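Box S1 | Example of a co-folding query
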Amino acid sequence: GDLDVNVPVQSKDEYGKVIQTFNDMTLRLREAEDARRRLVADVAHELRTPLSIMQLKLENAQQTGQFIPPEMLLRLHDEVIRLGLLVEDLHVLSLAEAGRLALDCKPLDLSAKLEQVVDDVKMEAEENGLEIRFYSNTRSVTVIADARRITQVFINLLTNAIRYTPEGGVISVVMEDRALDRNAVYTCVSVIDTGIGIPSEELPHLFDRFYRVEKARSRHTGGTGLGLSIAHHLVRAHGGFIQVMSEPDQGTTFTVYLPLGK
Ligand code: ADP
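Box S1 (continued) | Returned holo structure for adenosine-5'-diphosphate
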């Protein structure tokens, strides 16, 4: 393609350096171009099947002149909603991956926010026979963050915890105001579940977009395979990072590290 340019470096002088720099830039451009191409291919792949199923159902109804039964309409509607959310997620992800996600950072009381988020998912957890609890070693911690994006991070982690924990399980959200890691001080929040866990060989791919552990296992849960990827990029955009520990059949812990606000 256009970007497959590589000039052989023959001299060690200024020209050699210029050519080396040029080659490095070409490589980086090619990597960006590859990433973009992969994203487009992934998106096309994700959208194609549900869209063609909906198309078939609608065409079939049109050709036979039969009414679409209400439950099929409901399912079609759910699918349209799901695709809409997928497009929204992809938009956030592509902005975040390109480092172009504009954050609206302000001082945020993280413990208050977490309490609210836990409250928001409590009903869904209880409907699934799960207990959910929030623990904090402090009354209030301020981080400099985009409240909407941070909410999305924890909603994604909690939705997963609920999805992948069988009835009778417990989900704990644990906040620690000061944790030292990599020579910096962070506020850290763990989302701990007693669910199905993740095999260790899957962990390195977990934050890749569209990655789902055992596709069959995850399909019926209705996720998109983007939740963790988005969470990872949103936390990174805040100068933090996410760690995961998991034991199959025992449970999973995701820990979000956020830089402490001054
Ligand atoms: P999905 O929309 O499929 O949930 P995510 O990016 O949120 O996509 O998660 C990727 C995969 O990681 C999931 O399909 C699931 O297999 C696995 N996973 C995520 N969170 C958990 C968890 N708390 N327990 C077990 N498996 C999980």
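The longest strand covers residues 170-181. The chain has a mean pLDDT of 88.
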